[in-house]
Write a structure and sequence with these properties.
mainly alpha; about 0% strand
């Protein structure tokens, strides 16, 4: 019986159709960046802890510059995703999914820190109310709700 080959349909170039203003990164690229940033933070936190324990100072800016020099940047990748995951496994025993989960938790933590730092000081530490009418309390509550619309 003659062998038939099934031709896979050619996927249209959607990115070209959308143009530069409306394209989205490929999943593999986002995955690489997630692992890259997870390793950068894990190593940076370990180095910071070590430096402080030795009585030295630690500069995140200097560290990030050195990290970019060694590992490259998301725009200038020096290692494959597999190499980054191997490094993560060697140093922290974390596989691809664990590194991605670490980066996601780190991003969520930083996002919460940014939101807290943007909230006005009056909302962070409310003053106790003394001899205030219910109308004034209602206005105070309404004014605090208005801060929920602050763009982050």
């Amino acid at each position: 019986m003659a062998r038939t080959t099934v031709k896979q349909p050619q996927l249209p170039n959607f990115d070209a159709a959308f143009g530069d203003d409306f394209t989205v990164k490929d999943y593999a690229e986002k995955e690489w960046e997630s692992v890259y940033y997870a390793i950068r933070e894990l190593q940076g936190r370990a180095l910071k802890k070590s430096k402080i324990a030795q009585g030295d100072t630690f500069s995140w800016d200097a560290y990030k510059a050195k990290f970019a020099e060694v590992f490259g940047t998301p725009q200038d990748k020096r290692f494959t995703l597999e190499q980054l995951v191997s490094y993560g496994m060697q140093k922290w025993g974390m596989d691809l999914e664990e590194l991605k989960a670490y980066n996601r938790r780190s991003w969520e933590r930083r996002n919460v820190e940014v939101k807290v730092s943007v909230v006005p000081a009056a909302v962070k530490t409310p003053q106790p109310l003394k001899d205030v009418s219910s109308w004034e309390v209602s206005n105070l509550v309404t004014d605090t709700w208005a801060t929920d619309d602050i763009p982050y």
